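User: Earlier you gave me the apo prediction for this protein. Now I'd like the version with zinc ion bound, so I can compare the two side by side. Same sequence as before, with the ligand SMILES added.
Assistant: Got it. Here's the input I'm using:
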Amino acid sequence: MRAHNPSHSNTSIIPIKAFMDNYIWLINNSGKVAIVDPGDAKPVIDYLKSNALYPKAILITHKHSDHIGGVETIKAAYPEVIIYGPKTSSFDFEYIALSEGDTLSIPDIGIKFDVLETPGHTDDHIVYYNEESLFCGDTLFACGCGRLFEGTAEQMYESLQKLKKLDLKTKVYCAHEYTLENIRFAMSLDKNNPLLTRRFNEDKLKSNTLPSTIATELATNPFLLAENSEKFKEIRLKKDAF
Ligand SMILES: [Zn+2]
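And here is the structure of the complex with zinc ion:
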C-alpha cells in the first residue's frame, strides 16, 4: 500500500551538497524539515540557521558514514529531532527502527513514507517512498546503482525490481551526483540509444541532475533494463571496472 499524503503541496525538497558528491536532502514544509542521510552536520546546520528552518526528523537509508556522520551533532543541536533508520543497522544512537512494510508519518511536516528493504549496497539498506518521491540512498542512482559492498548481485537485482514497480512519475532523490559518469558507462554498453544521448546532453548542462524519475530510469538505466540477475551481475562487474 502506498503512503498517501493528505496535504501535498507546501512541501519542497532542497538539496544540500556535502563532501565531494553527496546530496543531503531536506524535505521542507513551512519551515519544518526532515533531513535525509546527513553525512555531515555543518552544511546542514548552516543551511537550517540561515533559512530559519527547524528539523523534526532524520531519515537514514544505511549505515555508511557519509550518510550518518552528522546525525549525532544535529541531534545535539536540535534535541527534538526524531531519528529513523533501518532495523538491522544497530546504531549506537537512539532511533526508531524500520523494516519493509512499515509506514512512517511525520505529522509536523505533513508527510508519510512507506519503507522497502533494498539490500545489496549494504545489508541494512532501506528506502523511503510515497506517491511523489523516493529517497533511495545508495541503492538506485541516476542511470546507475550502488556498488555491492555487502550484498550479492542477486539481492541488489531483487531490490531494484521493487523500485521498478513504483509509479512512473515518482521523483528519484539519490544520495550522490554520479549521473554523467553513469550515462557515459551506459552509452559504452548501448552506443546508439538516442534516449541516453539526449539525457547526457541535457544533464551535462546542470550542476545538479536530480531528481530523476522512475520513468526516466526505466528508459535509460542499464541496471533496471537488465532482464535477469545474471545480466545484472555482468553489467555491475563491467561498471566496477569502467
Ligand atoms: Zn553507501
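For your comparison, keep in mind: Residues 62, 64, 121, 138 surround zinc ion (CB under 6 Å).
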